[in-house]
Amino acid sequence: MLIHPWDAAHDDAEWKAWLSGHDFGQLIAGGAGRDLPIVNPAHFIYDGDRTILLHLARSNPVWPLLEEHPRALLAVTDDHTYIRSGWNTPADPPHGVPTSYYASVQLECDVRLIDDAREKAALLDRQLAHFEPGSGRLAVSATGAPDKRLLPAIRGVELTVTGVRAKFKFGGNKTSGDRSRIDAELERRDGPRDARARAQLARRER
């Protein structure tokens, strides 16, 4: 991912705060002799620092890759929107150059696979607490039915972040006046993610 200086995260606190508001991404794993990596969309929970937990079905084809090489990339992208050519290059609309605004955090991770039943149950309890608090779902049991029968169908994954590429592409190379004008255009269009892009545009302006 290309990251210009004006799009880079200001510091670790910026990408950590943004990632803490997200819980769905793509787990990407490669392997020796493969033409292409395996990409798994997955929900996850993030501890706000360097640890991420998720689980996948035991039948997932990613396991041999992670066993062979316990490294993976978790990519999370959001707050994206299209910036029209005339908005981005108002001085020469016939030759305007459009662009995209987006936030993207790519985490290089060491991988630990979790197969112990009690540890998988604890992982699922943490996910349930995050994704459906107050649902009334009983704690996951490693020894009682029906959970004991179902747990072997999944494997847990603990990711330890070892490297980060974070990008916040929201007109950092534009003047304050340009950013204000683009913000007004986004407000006027009011597309599906325009409000979120505007929030990032305003935040990065500070």
Characterise this structure.
- The chain has 206 residues and is an alpha+beta fold.
- It has a single domain (5-173), classed as Pnp Oxidase, Chain A (Roll).
- The chain is built from 7 helices and 7 strands.
- α6 runs antiparallel to α7 (194-205).
- The longest helix is centred in the middle third of the chain and has 15 residues, at 117-131.
- It is elongated, with a radius of gyration of 21 Å.
- 24% of the residues are buried.
Strand order, largest beta sheet: 2-1-5-6-7-4-3
Beta-strand percent range: 25-35%
CATH class: Mainly Beta
What is the number of beta strands?
A: 7
Q: Kindly report the CATH topology.
A: Pnp Oxidase, Chain A
CATH architectural arrangement: Roll
Number of domains: 1
Helix-strand category: alpha+beta
Main sheet summary: 7 strands, antiparallel
InterPro entries: Split_barrel_FMN-bd (IPR012349), TR_PAI2-type (IPR007396)
Biased composition (Basic and acidic residues): 176-206
Region (Disordered): 172-206
Organism: Amycolatopsis coloradensis
